[in-house]
Amino acid sequence: MPPIPLIPQIPQPVATLVGALIGALIGSIGAAILSHWLTRRREEDRIRKELVQQHLFQLQDATESLWYRLHNLAFRGGEEAMRDEEYYKLTTLYSLGKLLAVERIFTLEGIYPQLDAAYGEARLKKFLRKILLRKNRIELGKFLRKERIDLKLRHIDNFQQYDRIFLAEAVIEGERERLRASTFVEFVKRYEATGSTEKEHLDSLWLKVKNDRDFWRKMVELFDVLHEFAQRIREDADLYSQFLDRYDEKNPRYDKSLERLKNAGEKTIVVDHISRETTTGRRPARGNHNAARRPLASLLSRLAHVLAPLG
């Protein structure tokens, strides 16, 4: 058997050079991977910050606005302010329309899939949280689209799909190549404008829904949806809505009256209370029998006075 030839030994200088080249190559690849990962993280953080500032803040604000309006109607009566029919109509339509407007903007500008990408379960910390909490959570965008208010208000004879779309778009402003929800003053100015098509259609819409028990039943059922919205926005985007305190039994602000909505009979009583208040008509505020006919200019003046300290 012939002897096995020995592999010639690599000279030490060559081996050192090869080792250095391999180390440099590995280091270069590692640095490139790390640089790419850091760049990607920075871009993801920028996108999430932009989504929060431009869209989730709007959604949170609109959610809070509608929740407090419903709570006022269901459990506090609205007493003095709600005696002004014009004020009651405009503020109620605005609080509902604002949330519908934000949802409409999310659809028109493709925000839902952007939220899925930014807050999806593919992110490691969300994946770990899913494992630890053992919850089958869908992405934020899919959740908000699936649970949107527009869908919850379907099947109301006097509040059809294009009524909801019209109300939503009556509370949308175009600004620097993007859309946003109108402020209340902007909404009232548009409603008040000479020859306003919004006024004609919204007045007709209000006459149809203000006495409609089906409409108010669906509106009362929104308490649960708004609560879920606020919880999910808090969990994913760390934006806290103060009305969440009302659901926490350990919180001093806990509201026992919300428990009534878990009982079908009690919920019916709440709906009857709101629809009866609406049906019987709102009286002018005490001491001013012309309040119901007060021009909207006075409404804007009163609002400006309230907002002045914030300016």
Describe the 3D structure.
The chain has one domain. It contains twelve helices and two strands; from the N terminus they run H-H-H-H-H-H-H-E-E-H-H-H-H-H. Helices cover 65% and strands 3% of the residues. The N and C termini lie far apart (99 Å). It has 311 residues and is mostly helical.
List the helices and strands and how they pair.
Blueprint: H1 12-76, H2 85-108, H3 111-119, H4 124-133, H5 140-146, H6 149-152, H7 161-169, E1 172-175, E2 178-181, H8 184-192, H9 197-209, H10 213-237, H11 264-279, H12 296-307
Antiparallel strand pairs: 1-2
Helix pairs in contact: 1-2, 1-3, 1-10, 2-7, 3-5, 10-11
Write a concise synopsis of the structure shown.
By secondary structure, the protein is an all-alpha fold. Helix content is 65%, strand content 3%. Mean pLDDT is 79; it is low at 282-295.
Count up the helices.
12
Question: SS-based structural class?
Answer: mainly alpha
Sheet with the most strands: spatial strand order: 1-2
Q: Please count the beta strands (DSSP E, at least 2 residues each).
A: 2
Helix percent reads 55-70%
Low-confidence stretches: 282-295
How many domains is the backbone divided into? Answer: 1
Query: How confident overall, as mean pLDDT?
Result: 79
